[in-house]
Amino acid sequence: MMLSVLSYGRLLARAVIGGLSQTDGRDYSLVSASFGYGKDFRKGILKKGMCYGDDACFIARHRSADVLGVADGVGGWRDYGVDPSQFSGTLMRTCERLVKEGRFVPSNPVGILTTSYYELLQNKVPLLGSSTACIVVLDRQSHQLHTANLGDSGFLVVRGGEVVHRSDEQQHYFNTPFQLSIAPPEAEGSVLSDSPEAADSSSFDVQLGDIILTATDGLFDNMPDYMILQELKKLKNTNYESIQQTAKSIAEQAHVLAYDPNYMSPFAQFACDNGLNVRGGKPDDITVLLSIVAEYTD
């Protein structure tokens, strides 16, 4: 009996020491890959920067943190002769530049969004449009994930095959997400425009092996959690190729479902809940960023 108590004590000590060394020792990082589809996929998949249709995204690293973002340009601007991808693409490229220049605080992803948006507002080049946005920051040393989400893009954190954290969707009313906007002076009152500070933010600890999926609504409107989790089961290790392949299979499945007229998609379900008789997938641009929390190596 004594021996087993001693060995248990030793195991406990090792676990505690292991735990301690984990909190102060190793830096974490994200191994990330992206894949997506523009709704009008004749254009070729990638435009300037990382854009799929009117969606845009970035993956950037700095000494202290890994940062990712997705944005979904609001398509309605096309009716006014404005290319919706300009706004989302410029917003993401600006966020990426701020990160690479170290002009951000890891614990404040809303700040990255705010600084970028105000930079666009002061831009000498006239830029019009609107976009949702989601920013995810891994602080390497503290092992904390800090997030900011404005609108209906978002993220999931998956651990042991279950969703342990997720973003909250922000909608003004059905199919009208919160969005950052720059409108022409004559239309300023009539265009929806939310403050970047209205973004929903959260912070929590992550563990090695956690999977982080960041995506635009083109994914979440077409694939329920259980289907996404099924695809994530195929992820066998943390190498880039495996992550890229899984990101691709998730985006492909969402893309196929988006054009299925008989499929009861999450979007159609949401529409029905709002008194609209809708079936089928929701054709949309789809952007998937898939990341795994790993030990940091230079």
UniProtKB/TrEMBL annotation:
<dbReference type="Pfam" id="PF07228">
    <property type="entry name" value="SpoIIE"/>
</dbReference>
<dbReference type="InterPro" id="IPR036457">
    <property type="entry name" value="PPM-type-like_dom_sf"/>
</dbReference>
<keyword id="KW-0460">Magnesium</keyword>
<keyword id="KW-0479">Metal-binding</keyword>
<dbReference type="InterPro" id="IPR039123">
    <property type="entry name" value="PPTC7"/>
</dbReference>
<feature type="domain" description="PPM-type phosphatase">
    <location>
        <begin position="27"/>
        <end position="293"/>
    </location>
</feature>
<keyword id="KW-0904">Protein phosphatase</keyword>
<keyword id="KW-0464">Manganese</keyword>
<dbReference type="GO" id="GO:0005739">
    <property type="term" value="C:mitochondrion"/>
</dbReference>
<comment type="similarity">
    <text>Belongs to the PP2C family.</text>
</comment>
<protein>
    <recommendedName>
        <fullName>Protein phosphatase</fullName>
        <ecNumber>3.1.3.16</ecNumber>
    </recommendedName>
</protein>
<dbReference type="GO" id="GO:0004722">
    <property type="term" value="F:protein serine/threonine phosphatase activity"/>
</dbReference>
<keyword id="KW-0378">Hydrolase</keyword>
<dbReference type="InterPro" id="IPR001932">
    <property type="entry name" value="PPM-type_phosphatase-like_dom"/>
</dbReference>
<dbReference type="GO" id="GO:0046872">
    <property type="term" value="F:metal ion binding"/>
</dbReference>
